Amino acid sequence: MQLNLDFTGRHVFVFGGTTGINFGIAQAFVRQGAQVSVASRRPYNVQAAVEALAAMPSLARSPEGAAAVHGVCADVREFDEVGRAFEEAAARFGPIDVLVSGAAGNFLCEAKAMSANGFRVVVDIDLIGSFNVLRQAYPHLRRPGASVINITAPQSAVPMRYQAHACAAKAGVDQLTRVLALEWGGEGVRVNAISPGPIEGTEGFRKLMAPDAVAREAAVAAVPLQRFGSTDDIANLALFLASPYAGYVSGAVIPCDGGGALDSVKPTLERAGQEDAAAA
Ligand code: COA
Ligand code: NAP
16 CA distance to ligand 2 centroid (A)? Predict the structure, then answer.
């Protein structure tokens, strides 16, 4: 069997798709011929993403060219704004074949030092924002046939220090994934989630990974595959999940982490900190 991951003529919407992991996913779908919409809060991120996607060689060669990319500014915390973003994109490219919901915010902070607003802001973006995206996308999803992919994180299942907000929010994202797989399966919509490990070069990696070389070495050593991930690693899984090869996969939360979650918890600061303490 030859794998065909051609998404020509398909509409792929990546919420939070202007930087990092999600932008890597948007790039992969452009490469595979899709019409891609990206959305996030900051106009300069949206503009830069649209320009970079439009300049990709696969688009420069296609008759559709830059017209195959659409960008829109919207904050996932604003339900109506999110709805307008989908309306605009669907008016341009038609029903959504693939929805990626990956907007998130995070910072490291001990629970006892975290303000109520600090906790709320992460839950608002990661969990309530995911609901807003999924709920507002629903009328525009191709039924049957759409594939929905949420971007979760290892914190959804594995407790991590300084991550009370993100642990709680991403656990909610996993359950939202499973519930919507139950509710939407009958209409031919598959709902899954990808749980990335530490992905080098991204904002999440910069924020959560210990900055010094020794800690990084310990963090790599904690990954069974002995390397950090790349945005391509995640994008490849997204392509597969969106394709007919995953036609019987729904309600799954799939780690893409080099096996990191198996080592109960610690590809990040926590392991590095403990090992430093043990060595001292
Ligand atoms: N430590 C402790 N509290 C922090 C904090 C930190 N490093 N960063 C923000 N907060 C608190 C703020 O103090 C504020 O609470 P307060 O009003 O009680 O003082 C609350 O969080 C909201 O901060 P604010 O900066 O107003 O929120 P925002 O909506 O502008 O930004 C964030 C949201 C904080 C999540 C911001 O980091 C962000 O936009 N992140 C997106 C990118 C990202 O995190 N990517 C990685 C994905 S894994
Ligand atoms: P990132 O580059 O900061 O990506 C976050 C994206 O979401 C940006 O495009 C950002 O753009 C957008 N966004 C943030 N808040 C938003 C809001 N309120 N409304 C709309 N868009 C918003 O971070 P990343 O590290 O690549 O993370 C991407 C996803 O992977 C997240 O879901 C994260 O939890 C997950 N993840 C990352 C890692 C990792 O190692 N990096 C590991 C596990 C899981 P704007 O600022 O323009 O809004």
Answer: 6
- In tens, the pLDDT along 98-107 reads 999 999 999 9
Pocket test residue of 202, 216, 220, 233 for ligand 2, highest count of atoms within 8 A of CB: 202
Token pair listed for 271: 């392991």
Closest C-alpha to 171, from 187, 145, 195: 195
Q: Residue 20: CB within 6 Å of ligand 1?
A: no
Q: Is the CB of 267 under 6 A from ligand 1?
A: no
Nearest to 88 by CA among 44, 136, 45: 136
In angstroms, the Cα distances linking 76 to 1, 102, 178 are 40, 10, 20
Which residue's alpha carbon is at the smallest distance from atom 36 of ligand 1? 105
Across 224-228, average pLDDT = 96
Q: Which ligand is nearest to the CA of 154?
A: 2
Domain locations along the chain? 11-279
Burial level of 91, CB count in 10 A (0-12/13-18/19+)?
Answer: exposed
**CA quadruple 200, 203, 204, 206: dihedral sign:** positive
d(CA 47, CA 230): 23
Q: Which ligand neighbours the alpha carbon of 22 most closely?
A: 2
Contacts of 80 by beta carbon, 8 Å cutoff, 6+ apart = none
Instruction: Please name which ligand lies nearest the alpha carbon of 123.
Output: 1
pLDDT digits (tens, 9 = 90+) for 167-206: 999 999 999 999 999 999 999 999 999 999 999 999 999 9
Burial letters 43-72, b for 16+ CB under 10 A, else e: eebbeebbeebbebeebeeeeeeeebbbbb
Q: What is the CATH number of domain 11-279?
A: 3.40.50.720
Which residue has the least CA distance to atom 48 on ligand 1? 204
